[in-house]
Design brief:
This protein is mainly β. It contains no helices and six strands. The chain is elongated, with a radius of gyration of 24 Å.
Length: 110
């Protein structure tokens, strides 16, 4: 069986070709990739949701908004303002279900 030659080793990874950066370049500054810090030009740069309409699932308002990331939900007015009926909910940006109890936002479906 033929012997396999060992690969070249550069533990400092300073030689050109050992990184995605051109020789001599510093590492790029990391960027945040969450909805809290969207990059310019991406579609998730709409206004924050200020309202929620009951449904199965319900919807956030205004149009083209960014829904709340997660519970607790603040600054969002429920419609109707009374407790939502069984099965009604909205979905937060992290995928949680939430409903209006008549006095507060609560996790899960009504």
């Amino acid at each position: 069986m033929p012997e396999v030659a060992p690969m070249a080793s550069d533990p400092t990874m300073s030689a050109p070709g050992w990184s995605n950066n051109p020789p001599g370049a510093a590492s790029p500054t990391p960027t945040e990739q969450t909805r809290l810090f969207p990059l310019a030009g991406w579609s998730n740069t709409g206004p924050a949701a200020t309202g929620a309409t009951a449904g199965t699932p319900g919807s956030w308002t205004p149009a083209a908004n960014n829904p709340p990331l997660a519970l607790p939900i603040t600054g969002v007015t429920a419609s109707p303002a009374t407790a939502w009926t069984t099965g009604q909910y909205v979905i937060t940006d992290d995928g949680q279900y939430a409903h209006w109890s008549g006095t507060a936002w609560v996790a899960g479906k009504a």
